[in-house]
Design a protein that fits this description.
The structure is a homodimer. Chain A is 70% helix and 0% strand. By secondary structure, chain A is an all-alpha fold. Chain A has 2 domains: 46 residues, Homeodomain-like (Arc Repressor Mutant, subunit A, Orthogonal Bundle); 140 residues, Tetracycline Repressor, domain 2 (Orthogonal Bundle). At the A-B interface, helix 6, helix 8 and helix 9 of A face helix 6, helix 7, helix 8 and helix 9 of B. Chain A binds a DNA duplex through helix 3.
DNA sequence: CGGTGAATAATACGATTGTATAATTCACCG
DNA sequence: CGGTGAATTATACAATCGTATTATTCACCG
């Protein structure tokens, strides 16, 4: 009874890289960084451990690639639902998309936490993080400015910045709470709460009927 | 030239336990969970590695104790400034304390992230986390209810719960942003923003002069 | 249709991990 | 003032880590 050898199947390098990245994100989210070993990654991807250093220069390199892929997808998910419509409606959809799956997801919060310390130390990851954060806030600030202008209100630069930070904070906070204690909220509660709260911060009615 | 032996100094077990806990929190916050090894902990505490398993049953036991100590201090820091005064003023001070050091601190965010995965898996840590979170939110909800009542407004249970979740979210979000990107905000900006935002969510003026 | 080489698998290796055990130190007590 | 034992240090050990190396597979080409 010899240990059976893993089947040999040739695949595109891009496919292999994508599989390894997906395995890293799965493990980071579900099991945590400590359990995300090269052997666990390879096993989750259905490959031999050697593949990691064949397709990436090191485990760290693979993890960095996984972080970039995750951040890119988070941004895409937030902006996916923007579409057309007036400014209020676009802001409404942006907030909704930020407070519903797949953006709101225990996995996403887990990943955020798992990567935080690497982001703190690795300059490249830190740059990716800051760019993503500020891009999101700028996008939000632009939508807020447009919605306020549409309602006939004007806000100075400083005031706009304050509103964007506050709205971003309430969205982040709800994202966090829903991700950490998902069973503490009923379906749609976080989204509605976000629309009402952002509306209260801005003095706009976002939760009401479509414009 | 022999390696010099560490000096033998007898200390109270409580002191030793406290030193080890402090070392764990330092390392978790500064270096991350991966670098928080028994040898690094002992070195940071100025002790020999064996002390960990002498004063705690395992490294995991020590880490759990450190988590509990950290959470207890966070709660104490939030409530420290409650004091006397009318309901609005008490709410104001609670929000302020939650958005100024030592509660707002890059270290605190690092610790939160470092512990998240252990909290997810370890039932005891999870219980501590949920109890702390809900205790904080209940405390906030009580202060909100009193402040609204003082202003002659009544809110039903469901409405009160929604307000508490939303106010907690904006506080959490600001806590997070200030902790992750501390250099992105000027002194006092987060605190003022929190008071204005919570006030806007509740329809109360918190940022204005004392009652 | 045998040879070649990149892709894949399997194994080996040194370093580091948490834990267990043995060796020291010294306050305290009779 | 010698003996005792808990506190402390130092060392040993098996397991596991990331990496390096060797062995296989098989599509492709002449």
């Amino acid at each position: 009874m010899t240990a059976d050898r893993r089947k040999f199947t040739r695949e595109e390098p891009e496919t292999r890289r994508a599989d390894l990245i997906a395995a890293v994100l799965d493990l980071m989210a579900e099991a945590g960084p400590a359990e995300t070993t090269v052997r666990a990654i390879a096993d989750a991807a259905g490959l031999s451990p050697g593949m990691i250093r064949h397709h990436f220069t090191s485990k760290e390199d693979l993890v960095n690639a996984a972080y970039e892929a995750h951040m890119a997808r988070q941004i895409a998910d937030s902006e996916r639902a923007l579409g057309a419509g007036n400014a209020r409606e676009r802001l409404r959809r942006f907030v909704s998309a930020s407070l519903t799956p797949p953006v709101v997801d225990p996995r996403a919060v887990s990943l955020w936490a798992a990567f935080l310390h690497m982001v703190r130390r690795d300059p490249a990851m830190r740059a990716t993080h800051e760019a993503t954060y500020l891009a999101y806030r700028d996008r939000l600030q632009g939508l807020i400015a447009a919605a306020l202008a549409e309602a006939g209100r004007i806000a100075g630069r400083a005031e706009l910045r304050r509103l964007a930070i506050a709205c971003n904070a309430v969205i982040d906070g709800l994202w966090l709470e829903a991700g950490v204690l998902p069973e503490a909220f009923v379906a749609g509660e976080i989204e509605t709460l976000g629309l009402v709260s952002v509306g209260a911060l801005l003095g706009l009615d976002l939760a009401g009927g479509a414009a």
